[in-house]
C-alpha cells in the first residue's frame, strides 16, 4: 500500500512548510488528487489518519480535491473533461486521445493554520 508512504511524505512536507512559514498549528492540508494518479483516495485518508498520530499534525484534516481527467481533442481543438477516465475518447466527437492535460495530480497545494496552542511551535518528528 503505497498510500502509507505518500501520507508520510505529506506529513513531512507539511511540517517543513509550517516551520518555514512560522505557522504554529496546522489544521488542514489541501491536496489535489487526480483520477489517474494511481492513489486510492480512501486508503490515503486512512493512512493519513494513522501517520499523523503522535506528530505535530495530530488532529489535522486532509482535504482532498478530486481532479477529473481532462484531455485535448485534436479534432475538436478543445479541452474536454471525461465523464469516466476510460476509454480515452473525446466526449464530444469520440476521437481517441492520449493528450492528458489534467488528472494525474498528486499535489499538496495549501496548509490551513490556526491559533490553538499558539505557544507550541511545530517541530518535526525527528527533533
TrEMBL record:
<dbReference type="GO" id="GO:0008270">
    <property type="term" value="F:zinc ion binding"/>
</dbReference>
<feature type="binding site">
    <location>
        <position position="90"/>
    </location>
    <ligand>
        <name>Zn(2+)</name>
    </ligand>
</feature>
<protein>
    <recommendedName>
        <fullName>Hydrogenase maturation factor HypA</fullName>
    </recommendedName>
</protein>
<dbReference type="GO" id="GO:0016151">
    <property type="term" value="F:nickel cation binding"/>
</dbReference>
<feature type="binding site">
    <location>
        <position position="93"/>
    </location>
    <ligand>
        <name>Zn(2+)</name>
    </ligand>
</feature>
<feature type="binding site">
    <location>
        <position position="2"/>
    </location>
    <ligand>
        <name>Ni(2+)</name>
    </ligand>
</feature>
<dbReference type="InterPro" id="IPR000688">
    <property type="entry name" value="HypA/HybF"/>
</dbReference>
<comment type="similarity">
    <text>Belongs to the HypA/HybF family.</text>
</comment>
<comment type="function">
    <text>Involved in the maturation of [NiFe] hydrogenases. Required for nickel insertion into the metal center of the hydrogenase.</text>
</comment>
<keyword id="KW-0533">Nickel</keyword>
<feature type="binding site">
    <location>
        <position position="76"/>
    </location>
    <ligand>
        <name>Zn(2+)</name>
    </ligand>
</feature>
<feature type="binding site">
    <location>
        <position position="73"/>
    </location>
    <ligand>
        <name>Zn(2+)</name>
    </ligand>
</feature>
<dbReference type="Pfam" id="PF01155">
    <property type="entry name" value="HypA"/>
</dbReference>
<dbReference type="GO" id="GO:0051604">
    <property type="term" value="P:protein maturation"/>
</dbReference>
<dbReference type="InterPro" id="IPR020538">
    <property type="entry name" value="Hydgase_Ni_incorp_HypA/HybF_CS"/>
</dbReference>
<keyword id="KW-0479">Metal-binding</keyword>
<keyword id="KW-0862">Zinc</keyword>
Amino acid at each position: 500500500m503505497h498510500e502509507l508512504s505518500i501520507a508520510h511524505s505529506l506529513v513531512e512536507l507539511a511540517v517543513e512548510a509550517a516551520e518555514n512559514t512560522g505557522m504554529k498549528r496546522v489544521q488542514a492540508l489541501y491536496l489535489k488528487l487526480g483520477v489517474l494518479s494511481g492513489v486510492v483516495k480512501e486508503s490515503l485518508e486512512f493512512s493519513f489518519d494513522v501517520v499523523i498520530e503522535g506528530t505535530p499534525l495530530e488532529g489535522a484534516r486532509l482535504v482532498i480535491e478530486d481532479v477529473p481527467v481532462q484531455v485535448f481533442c485534436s479534432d475538436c481543438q478543445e479541452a474536454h473533461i471525461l465523464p469516466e477516465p476510460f476509454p480515452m475518447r473525446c466526449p464530444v466527437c469520440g476521437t481517441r486521445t492520449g493528450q492528458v492535460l489534467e488528472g494525474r495530480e498528486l499535489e499538496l497545494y495549501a496548509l490551513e493554520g490556526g491559533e490553538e496552542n499558539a505557544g507550541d511551535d511545530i517541530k518535526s518528528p525527528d527533533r
